[in-house]
Amino acid sequence: MAVVTAVGGSAAVASSFANATGVDLTPLTTAVDFSTVTTAVLAIAGSIAAVYVVVSAAKIVIARIKAA
Asked: What keywords is this UniProt entry annotated with (predicted)?
């Protein structure tokens, strides 16, 4: 019975912390516009992906030329 009470007591403590409200950061997050940052990050990622594709294609072409 003591084990069940201890487990039930810890569950009660955990649920009381789960219901606590945290800090509201809505005014800070709504004041910042991330659309330009997102566009820049995606453009950089696309450029890097394009470089990898070109390098891979060049390696394949060079390997086929050497094999011929």
From this structure: Membrane, Signal, Transmembrane, Transmembrane helix
